[in-house]
Amino acid sequence: MSETKKFLYVNRKAPYGTIYALESLEVVLIGAAFEQDVTLAFLDDGVFQLAKGQNTDGIGVKNFSPTFRALGDYDVTKLYVEQESLAERGLTQDDLQEIMYEDEDDDWEEKPSIRIVSRAEMADIMADQDVVLSF
Known about the structure:
Elements: E1 6-11, H1 20-33, E2 37-42, E3 79-82, H2 83-88, E4 100-103, E5 109-112, E6 114-117, H3 119-127, E7 131-134
């Protein structure tokens, strides 16, 4: 039996104004449905995809940010956010949505999916993947 490949989806774009963020989320959900080992990385303006309190009423598009909270149901529990990208945009972890998953190996305890990592740690995470797709 072949080993499961590790897929990293790199999100670098703001959530609205282009199709990249929504397309990434859709591809992640499809991959997870097919039991891929999925990890997400948020860098540059991609960190805004996880921001709390998004309101898209003024731009006439659907707010898809609540969908991130469903990722744990698809066993997508590794969301890495680059610390430097947050800081460069005046954001902290407190500005991000709370995205949780239930850890079946730890009596279904709820745990956070978002991990803040340094730029150097993000490089190591990327290097450890079999497939890297950038959006």
